[in-house]
Amino acid sequence: MSGVPHLIRTQDNSWFFDAAAAGRLEIQRCSDCQTLRHPPGPACPVCRSFAWETVVSSRRGTVHSWTVLHHPKDDAFDYPLGVALVDLAEGTRFVADMAGFDLDALEIGMEVELGFGEHAHGEWLPRVFPVGQAEGLDGAPNREEAP
């Protein structure tokens, strides 16, 4: 049994989870100053505007940093579990679990793609993959099943 809590959907983030379930990585953008932001929030951290829209990400980026988790272990994950901080091509950063990597061969600046994987409780969330292994870059989830 997993100890991972259910996603908490709010009016500020439900669009993000809906897009992920549909196989799209959407990034929030301020309608006034055009600043991209993630994670989603109600107001722009630059100009404080409440007006926003979304842009669909190319889902391509480079590894800015990463860590490898060994414990505490939860049934919802395979261990060791790589978690990457990715500089997206659009100019914002994103944190997600990694899949399909030789964790000993990771390098800062390594090109990666974001796909989607089934997470605890049946949710679909972005996941970092090696280039060429994130299926569905046309917008369809790659449907990597959770362990």
3D architecture notes:
This protein is mainly β and 147 residues long. It is built from one helix and eight strands; from the N terminus they run αββββββββ. It has one helix spanning 14-21, and strands at residues 26-30, 36-37, 52-56, 60-69, 81-88, 93-98, 111-118, 124-130. A five-stranded mixed barrel has the order 4-5-6-8-7. Strand 5 and strand 6 (93-98) form a beta hairpin. It is globular, with a radius of gyration of 15 Å. The two termini are 12 Å apart. The model is unreliable at 137-147 (pLDDT under 50).
Summarize the model shown.
The protein has 147 residues and is mainly beta.
Provide the succession of SSEs: HEEEEEEEE
What percent of residues adopt helix (DSSP H or I)? under 10%
Structural class: mainly beta
| Percent of residues in beta strands | 25-35%
User: Strand arrangement, largest sheet?
Assistant: 4-5-6-8-7
Q: Assign an overall shape.
A: globular
State the distance separating the first and last CA atoms. Answer: 12 Å
Instruction: Work out the radius of gyration.
Output: 15 Å
- Please outline the major beta sheet: 5 strands, mixed, barrel
Runs in which pLDDT lies below 50 for 5 or more consecutive residues are 137-147
Number of helical segments?
1
The count of β-strands is 8
Mean pLDDT: 89
